[in-house]
Amino acid sequence: MEQLISSFKTIAPSIPYIINGIWVTLGIALGAAIIGFVLGTLLSLCKISNVKLLNGLARGYTSIFRGTPLIMQLALAYFAVPQLFGLGDVNATTVAIITFGLNSGAYMSEIIRSGINAVDKGQFEAAGALGVGYWPMMKDIILPQAIKNILPAMMNEFITLTKDSAIVSTIAVTDMMRRSQIVSAQYYTYFPPMFVAFIMYYLVILLLTFIGGRIERRLSRSDQS
């Protein structure tokens, strides 16, 4: 126990450095969530479209990104693709955001598609009877209702992105995980730095889960009123 306490005292000056990595973690998750939402919306519209080509491309995209490991996608994007096209050095954080966003888009497309399918069919029929075009109907009538229904699921996706973002340490992005590894190597002690990062991840996820629960309860009350 004394040795453990001594180890924590040794790394104490570096604890703020580890904790500040949370902003990198949340930045990657937020950027990826925005890309994932936009891409997921487009893919979901393609999936419910009557155009077979768009439908097939969207389903193929989803199958590829949901059927392969995220860490493999990240490695391909950071190591293989730049070498293939002779791009030289690429920004690891940018690659992480784009890769996570592309991956999230595949999952978000299914969430949004289910939200659209859950909207009362009468809404579609009423819009058609009023002569509202397909895209205006989706933008102004269907999607707002669908998004309201799937907000809790979207929050869960953001929480998943936040947790999964730890793998960006494999491409040297200085998030919390990577910073804890750097401090571990600096002081030749692994438990204290890793434990600090572990607790911070847990606290952030607890906070995001709490926010998601509040959103879900508020939506439930609004539906009942």
Task: Put the structure in a nutshell.
The protein has helices at residues 2-11, 15-19, 21-47, 52-66, 70-85, 92-118, 121-129, 134-164, 176-187, 191-224. By secondary structure, it is mostly helical. The radius of gyration is 21 Å and the shape is flat.
Descriptive notes:
The chain is mostly helical and 225 residues long. It has a single domain, classed as MetI-like fold, CATH 1.10.3720. The protein is built from 10 helices and no strands. The protein is flat and about 75 Å long. Pfam families: BPD_transp_1. This is L-arginine ABC transporter membrane protein.
Radius of gyration equals 21 Å
Domain module count: 1
Average pLDDT works out at 88
Number of strands: 0
Calculate the terminal CA-CA distance, rounded to whole Å: 56 Å
Number of helices: 10
CATH homologous superfamily - what is it? MetI-like
**Biggest sheet, open or closed, and with what strands and sense?**
none
Low-pLDDT windows of residues? none
What is the fold-level CATH name, i.e. the topology?
Answer: MetI-like fold
Under the CATH scheme, which architecture would be assigned?
Orthogonal Bundle
The topology string of helices and strands comes to HHHHHHHHHH
| CATH C-level category | Mainly Alpha
